[in-house]
What we know:
This protein is α+β, with helices and mostly antiparallel strands. It has two domains: 1-123, no CATH class; 244-449, no CATH class. 48% of the residues lie in helices and 16% in strands.
Amino acid sequence: MPKLLNAMPLERTNRIFLHPVHQEAVGTVAQLIGDLRQCRNPEDYFTFQQGLLMKVLAVQKYRTGCRWVAKLLRQGKTVPADAPELRSAEPADSPETWELEVDVCERVDRQLRSVADALAWRMFNYDRRVIIALSRNQHPGQMAGKEGLAAELAFLAVWWREERRFVLLHDLTTCLSIGDATSFKEVGAEYEAYLHEIKSDTSRKPDRRTAKQLRRQLMAEEAIRSGGPLPGELPGRLVQLDLPYKTHLDLLGRSFELAHQRGIQGMKVPGGRSLVTTDTVRGYELWSEQELIDRTATEHLQATKRAHILGKGQLVYARTDDMVARSPTMPPWAIYPLSPELCTRLIADYALFIVTMSSDSVLAALDDVGLAAEWVLPVDQGAIEPDQVVLRVGNRRRIIELRWVEMQRRLLFEMADLPTWAESIKQLLAAENTGRHPWALFADEWRVWA
């Protein structure tokens, strides 16, 4: 995985943010989000995906060419005559220049494909079951230069020309890795979705890899339809609950409105959590870079105190910077109930938010619904792995385990209402045949995002 922004020197991070390719992408992403929210019919979606696809392929091709030039320069060779046209004013004979282009394009690629993720969520009516089930495979990576791309583009074109049916290309997203495409058939005001595996050479017999892909596809479909085991190495099942989803994302919009004026804003969130929002652009207008960092840390401490969680149990937090398109099951920023401009700032890391919670708050909420729970995250642990179990909850009949990726997404990034979340855990324990690692699905979740 490419190096995270937080692991880079500040000087290099600033060069990435100020790069013409990155700055141009900010406007492009804002326009794309606005356009996506205006899509209403198959033709709209087809046109939108075609435009997005061309942008993604262009960035990926440029990135591949820049990586090739950097490699040649590292070998002591000169810039070839057919090298890509450099998009910055930095010295063309330096390999660091071309490596910077590669880093910038990696970020822009993720930013654009996060909008494709939003397209996927929208086409599947914000049904989290589909995203979780179809994300449980290794993503093939970039599309440009990929074997089979021509076949996929032809497949899309044929369905559109002959059936006027929109086909979503999975490789354009970062959240769909099982199946190559989904076609959507209009049935009244709704759509029926059909999963497809596209062969680039129809004369070849299915090999082991193809057979394995088909098995995973069948498992994913069964998991969505009837709660069967999810495909992939990690066990789990999808469990539909009769419980409406409730979040506190309205506070996120309010906090960012204040941060847009003040640079930074902190507040407490119901359920023993604190929220800090930072408008980086406004912050740089008010203070130096280091002062902005220091003030964000101070505001985080004060917000944690106001939430009455400082010194109470183990504090865990999640921050949004450089998270775009990093987690396939996390709702993309582009579908958050925020303006296209603010969604774009989150995508481009021109704005960020940090949510912190206490283990005591979580345990108390579970106790309120009559559940015994154990917080198993080691106190002295630094970074938490996405698939790490952090909580065990049980009753007289059984125990379930919750991984960090589930709690981080629901309780921190989505700011789910804590009593509602605790009730969902109670319902999971009462349900039959859910396994030790169930994924809770609330009723009418789509209303949060639509």
